[in-house]
Amino acid sequence: MKNLLTRLLLALALSACPALAQTALDEVTLINGSRILGTVMGARDGVLTVATDFAGTLSIAADQVASVTTNTAVSLLMADNAVIENVPLTVREGQLLVASEPRYALTDLKVVNPAPWELGEGYNWTGIAEAGWVMQRGNTDTDELNYKLESTWLSTRDRYTLKWYGENDEVNGQKSADNWQLTGKYDYFLDDPNYWGMQVALEEDKFADLELRTLIGPYIGRQFFAAPVFTFSGEVGLSYVEEDFFEADDQEYAAATWALKATSDVLGGDSRLYFDQTGIWSLDDTSDLIVKSIFGLGFPLMWNFEAAAEVQLEYDSGIVREKEELDQTYRFRVGYSW
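User: That's the sequence. What structure does it adopt?
Assistant: Structure tokens below.
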């Protein structure tokens, strides 16, 4: 009986060992001596992400990490685009310990478990679709609709971008706003962080007498900053512009163009501050200038739904005389991102 009991206890102990191994936690030690137990979820652009039971998900700068020990094999994409597959993530004194590989610092680690597109296979598709609708009935009947669709296909070689946004408003059955803009862009990456591209843009604004503005041309761009706390890119180029008006004389001209884009997650909570500006400066008449600037704040709701509040300032020095040169628009939208 005693031998039978001993065998049962031994069998239970052996069967528990795999379960204990599966629940073993990864360990991260910081240069200040702090020790974090959890699950290393990944690393990207110099930031290590660790899921913990006591503080949720932590984001830790790589230069603050002294050592890391994980219990599962991962794939590593390094800053020099070398790929190291099926190794545990082990770091000692800020150095990656990988057998039979060149010596790498943790700060040389670009991505843990990179997606196929990051290895040059296919594209990463992201986007957002938003809409805002206001309906008022009473002394004044008002219907306001504004919408926005942005989609990007990104690979290690190039990028495709599609943007479509517009506004349709009615007051007492009479149109008070009717405009839209569709932009398509192609970027080809040169030596990081530079790229060149081509763009095609179509725009209509009935209440600015604009039947159709067509723009096409090349540009050169640079990604100045890419960290989540602050991203900033700029583009300058030359374009052919053709403008058809409902009443004013049609015109076509060569133009210098620019685009600025910035985002920041400095507010935390997955919120996003953003700024977009585009400019068209006629080379035939240098007093003819069009500048659109958008300042906005996007914040998550639940799942992949988010809300955004923004203000758009549009300056057009060549607008018909009966219209204001500066147009201000305030928007609030709810949408879905992927």
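The first helix runs from residue 2 to 22.
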